[in-house]
């Protein structure tokens, strides 16, 4: 990590703004995005506009700035967060020359929102701090770019992949099996990682990029992503890319993709039991973990719990059920919110409604396990709260946000 130090007076001013950022951080970041896209509309090729509309991206940035201000004299403390964000940046092909654009507009937004509270001295202190923080990101991301490019079968930037097979997994989820157009080797990956897909949608001025989890074990000569068609609701518009992939991408079509990335990965070489808990499309990274464990012939006890609306929305059930029926160390249970009459006949359906603590206690015998979970944010908050109640150590709790990172801790 960079050893450049912030001047003591600048450090004092930055830390003094922590309460202001806590109160106004999201307002600042919303204004920042509006301002930056006005002056640099080309960046709309990179950012997910849906996350802008529903407020997740501004909130995530505000949280990151707040954390940086709190730990400005010890950035090592936020290195795990830096690496998590850097994985996403590398996957989106973010370049060092884009950081000054972000810094210029972020500082201007702070000044415009805070007014007199953002004095020239405060802004100058934050300019120094931003340059140090940006330098850390650039340094970490350079290492990731180098690693991705030099890995066997690896590459930098985008690479063309042919959709070899398209398979509907449920009412809402479809899998895309991808092989490189150039016919060369592909990079391996860690179970739980994701890839970025770039699409150009006819009639849209800007490209769209989305990150989708890899949903199969590595080493099979293809990549598989399993995409949920986001239909939208009153709080969130329909998914532009997911609907385009479902409705318009066919077998034989070509997609542009970056190399696998992400830090939500399966810890290997451990002896503790493993518990996988998924909700909806959150099953995708956990399927990669599950298939990897089965492929390796693990002797660890593996418990797989999945929640869905009903059986028609449940992807890959038959595969997990068949595996569980054949392996003594695999335990499988399903929770359906609104089970159909056919679902009631499913021997693996153990609960109707939502996952709760009583249900998890009945399914999980040993709390001394590594827990991996992914799904809608309310679902993840519930699981996280339960695991905290059980006293599960943080280092044994692993989870992934789809989109900008949030927080699962109680407010």
From TrEMBL:
Active site (catalytic residues): 99 (charge relay system), 141 (charge relay system)
Short name of any one Pfam family annotated for the protein: FAD_binding_6
Protein keywords: Detoxification, FAD, Flavoprotein, Heme, Iron, Metal-binding, NAD, NADP, Oxidoreductase, Oxygen transport, Transport
Residues holding NADP(+): 280-285
Residues noted as binding FAD in the record, renumbered to the chain: 194, 210-213, 401-404
Domain (Globin) ranges: 5-142
Catalytic activity: 2 nitric oxide + NADH + 2 O2 = 2 nitrate + NAD(+) + H(+); 2 nitric oxide + NADPH + 2 O2 = 2 nitrate + NADP(+) + H(+)
Catalytic activity, EC: 1.14.12.17
Ligand binding (heme b): 89
Listed GO biological process terms: cellular response to nitrosative stress; nitric oxide catabolic process; response to toxic substance
Residue ranges of the region described as Reductase: 153-411
Gene Ontology MF, one: oxygen binding
Family, as annotated: In the C-terminal section; belongs to the flavoprotein pyridine nucleotide cytochrome reductase family.
Comment on protein domains: Consists of two distinct domains; an N-terminal heme-containing oxygen-binding domain and a C-terminal reductase domain with binding sites for FAD and NAD(P)H.
Protein name as catalogued: Flavohemoprotein
Organism: Shouchella clausii (strain KSM-K16) (Alkalihalobacillus clausii)
């Amino acid at each position: 990590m960079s050893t450049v130090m912030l001047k003591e007076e600048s450090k004092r001013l930055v830390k003094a703004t922590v309460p202001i950022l806590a109160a106004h951080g999201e307002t600042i970041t919303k204004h920042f995005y509006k301002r930056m896209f006005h002056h640099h509309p080309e960046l709309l090729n990179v950012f997910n506009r849906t996350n802008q509309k529903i407020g997740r991206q501004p909130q995530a940035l505000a949280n990151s700035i707040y954390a940086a201000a709190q730990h400005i004299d010890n950035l090592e403390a936020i290195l795990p967060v830096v690496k998590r964000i850097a994985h996403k940046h590398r996957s989106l092909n973010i370049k060092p020359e884009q950081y000054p654009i972000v810094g210029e507009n972020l500082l201007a937004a702070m000044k415009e929102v805070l007014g007199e509270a953002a004095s020239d001295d405060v802004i100058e202190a934050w300019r120094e701090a931003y340059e140090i923080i940006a330098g850390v990101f650039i340094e970490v991301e350079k290492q990731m770019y180098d690693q991705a490019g030099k890995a066997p079968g690896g590459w930098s930037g985008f690479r063309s992949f042919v959709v070899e097979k398209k398979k509907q997994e449920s009412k809402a989820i479809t899998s895309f099996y991808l092989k490189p157009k150039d016919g060369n080797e592909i990079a391996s990956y860690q179970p739980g990682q994701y890839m970025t897909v770039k699409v150009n949608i006819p009639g849209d001025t800007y490209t769209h990029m989305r990150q989708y989890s890899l949903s199969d074990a590595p080493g099979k000569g293809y990549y598989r992503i399993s995409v949920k068609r986001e239909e939208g609701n009153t709080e969130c518009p329909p998914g532009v890319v997911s609907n385009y992939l479902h409705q318009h991408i066919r077998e034989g079509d070509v997609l542009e993709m970056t190399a696998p990335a992400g830090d939500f990965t399966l810890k290997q070489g451990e002896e503790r039991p493993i518990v996988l808990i998924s909700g909806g499309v959150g099953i995708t990274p956990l399927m990669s973990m599950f298939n990897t464990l089965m492929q390796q012939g693990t002797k660890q006890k593996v418990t797989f719990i999945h929640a869905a609306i009903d059986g028609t929305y449940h992807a890959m059930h038959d595969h997990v059920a068949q595996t569980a029926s054949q392996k003594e160390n695999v335990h499988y249970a399903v929770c359906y919110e609104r089970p159909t009459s056919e679902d009631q006949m499913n021997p693996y359906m153990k609960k109707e409604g939502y996952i709760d603590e009583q249900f998890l206690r009945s399914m999980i015998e040993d709390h001394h396990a590594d827990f991996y979970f992914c799904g809608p944010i309310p679902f993840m908050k519930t699981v996280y709260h339960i695991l905290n109640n059980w006293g599960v150590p943080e280092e044994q709790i692993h989870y992934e946000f789809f989109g900008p990172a949030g927080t699962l801790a109680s407010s």
